Amino acid sequence: MMSKKKGILNAVFLITVFAITIYAIFHGQDLGELFGYIRNTDYRYWLVAVVCVVFFICSESVIIYYMMRSIRQKIKLMHCFLYSFVGFFFSCITPSATGGQPAQIYYMKKDKLSIPVSTLVLMIVTITYKLVLVVLGTLVVIIRPAQIMHYLEPVLGWCYLGLLLNVFCVAFMMFLVFHPTLAANMMDAIIRGLGKIHLMKRTEYYREKMANAMKQYQDVAGYFRTHKLVVTNVFLITVVQRLLLFFVTYLTCRSFGIDGTGMVTIVVLQGMISVAVDMLPLPGGMGISESLFLSIFAPICGTLTLPAMVVSRGLSYYTELILSAVMTTVAHFTIGRPRKQKREER
User: Fold this and answer.
1) What is the arithmetic mean of pLDDT over 51-56?
2) Are the C-beta atoms of residues 137 and 166 closer than 8 Å to each other?
3) Is the pLDDT of residue 336 over 50?
4) Reduced to 3 states, what is the DSSP secondary structure of residue 177?
5) Cβ–Cβ < 8 Å for 293, 312
6) 278/295 Cα distance (integer angstroms)
7) DSSP conformation letters of 92-132
8) What is the pTM of this model?
9) For 204-220, what is the mean pLDDT?
């Protein structure tokens, strides 16, 4: 788990970004009119959206349980649900979602699960999670559907940047997985070089940490080679998982009575927002996600763009954050706690 000092810094950063986002979005807006639009929505679509968010989070639970069982690890499905909520909570509040997996590993360790095994499983989850965005972004860039490109035109620079960063991230991780020896030699040379020019101290310590990390990537490579069907199934589940969250934006539009644009178009546009912001160092893509939504969906939503953005982000991000916070509290008080011994029967 993160240190107290790091936790305070993350909290300050999160609050600062949130305050700036709120000010930038609502400054000069008629809040009475805004909430008037929101009050007139069809709340039934919101309920379906919340269900989609819950299934989005729980999809990762299914993936973790499925992979753990494939390598014969004893694990409880209910605890997998808690791991997922913990991961999404810390991902929501840390830049570039960097806090999610360390927190999950912490709770898995409390459940007596091996750290190398947990790291392997979560690394594959990360690769497939980002690979879905790479596939979506690449298809849009190659096929260039006219309607999609028209709506994306004001923010194409952000989309290209996000796609490039995601491609680099996935490619780098796959390079580490399938060429661990070459990667290890390169990293070792970099560490030794930085040590020689006095830009890095404790080089032996970092070389040892790097060697341990490379061992984990070798384990992932072995898993890919021996569990190809499992990895394929994980990718397909992840596709459905991602689409569930993108579908929330479509449900939001329907709740406002916006039905002039097809479901596929809206889902793809929301997906491209995720492509653009996923690798940016902002908690939950806060600030930039709202800005991109307002730019992309203005021709679709018209005067309802701001209310639709508020509801869409409220359902897809803040609902996820609140639910995950509650379940993380549950995880804290349940995972790793010794059960009370039953009284012996007389």
Assistant:
1) 95
2) yes
3) yes
4) helix
5) yes
6) 18
7) HHSBTTTTHHHHHHHHHHHTT--HHHHHHHHHHHHHHHHHH
8) 0.84
9) 72
